[in-house]
Amino acid sequence: MILLVFLGVVVAFALWAVGIYNGLVTARNAFKNAFAQIDVQLQRRFDLIPNLVETAKGYLSHERGTLEAVTAARTAAQSGLSAAKASPGDPAAMAELAQTQGALNGALGRLMVVVEAYPDLKANQNMMQLTEELTSTENRVAFARQAYNDSVMAYNNKREVFPASVVAGMFNFAAAALLEIPDDKAEVREAPKVEF
């Protein structure tokens, strides 16, 4: 009889641990999926930028430095995204992604300031369409980032509360990092202004 009670306790404990483990795996997969949505939107953004630069190039021939800065920032941002895709939630990867996206935001913002000085370029149908798509994409990136951060918070909460913290520690469920733009860079917090 005592053996049956002991076996029952062991089985109940095992089922409890499996349930917690499965919940942690589900939460981890949710934040990775949310990061995949950020990836989709950032890729869309990266695809728009060369067209934007090409459209502006004819009008801004003496602003080559601005156009080259946007292109260089795009390349760096793609590199930051690749690092983050390899390890979503990793603090170093998320910091690099935030830094490179901030630099790209700054470069795009400077380009839009320059574009404002060229009425013909502002009135160009292709430029108007591209800036509208870029604005829409920036909004999608913001929503995807918020969904990712919400998923990371849910995962981190789940792995830190007792008794799940015991199972998380046993199976090395590491904390995931939010995708945050640093507070000390106020200009990074602002989406590029693409109004005409």
How would a textbook summarize the main sheet?
Answer: none
Task: State the end-to-end distance.
Answer: 81 Å
Task: Work out the strand percent.
Answer: under 5%
String of helices and strands? HHHHHHH
* Count of DSSP-assigned helices: 7
**Principal-axes shape call:** rod-shaped
SS-based class: mainly alpha
Mean pLDDT over all positions: 85
Question: Which radius of gyration do the C-alpha atoms yield?
Answer: 23 Å
Helix content range of the residues, please? over 70%
Low-confidence stretches: 183-189
* Total DSSP E strands: 0
Protein name: LemA family protein
Keywords: Membrane, Transmembrane, Transmembrane helix
Pfam families: LemA
Main location: membrane
Topology:
Blueprint: H1 2-57, H2 64-86, H3 91-116, H4 119-123, H5 125-160, H6 164-170, H7 186-189
Helix pairs in contact: 1-2, 1-5, 2-3
Please tell me about this protein's structure.
By secondary structure, this protein is mostly helical. The protein has helices at residues 2-57, 64-86, 91-116, 119-123, 125-160, 164-170, 186-189.
Summary tags:
196 residues; mainly alpha; 7 helices; LemA-like_dom_sf; transmembrane; MamQ_LemA
What would a concise description of this structure say?
By secondary structure, the protein is mainly α.
